[in-house]
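Quick start: read one record
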Amino acid sequence: QEFFGTLRIGATPNRVLLEVTYLTHDANRPCRTFESPLPDVSARLELCRQWAALLEILHENDVVAGDISDRNWLWTCNGSSPRAFMLDCDAYRLIGKSGVLTQKETPGWEDAHLAGHQTNPTSDVYKLGLMVFRVLLQARHERPEYDDPRLLGPGSVIPRSVTDLILASVGPRGDRPTAADWSRGLRTAFI
C-alpha cells in the first residue's frame, strides 16, 4: 500500500502504483493531479540518492539491474520521509552471467554507448544518470546535453556536483562514475 497513490484524471480517481514516470511528467499537466502533492526538488534528490544506494548495493554484490526505467522504480512520500523501491527485478543477473530471463532495454532508456554489449554496471549508471536528469527536471523523454541551460544555467535547480555526475554518466563508458560515486554525490548535494 505504501507505494500507491490516487491520481485524478479529470474527475475520476484512480489508484496507481507510484512509478517514477509520474515524477518525470510536467507537474502542470492539465487534467492529471495527485491527491497529495508531488515531491519537491529536495525530496526528489533524496529519492535519487536512495536509488543510487540500492544500485550501489547491487553492484557491490556483482549484480546488474540492466532494465532500469521509469516504470520499474517506485517512490513514495507518504509518512515522514521519501522512500524508494525497485520493482520488476526478474532480469537482474550476476555480472558476466546470463539471467533467468533475457535482459531487455526499455525504449528511451537504452545506453547509447553499449553497442550490442551485455548490460553491465556502467550501463546501469548511464540509466541512473538519465533517471536523475528526468526526475529533477521533469523531462520525461529527454536526454541530457552538455550545453543544456537547465543543467548549467544560473537558474538551474540541480546542484553543480549533481550536474557533473549526470553528464559523466551519459558520456563514454570508460569515464563514468560508479553507483557509489552517485550515492556519495547525492548525499552531499545539499550539505
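Residues 41-60 form the longest helix (20 residues).
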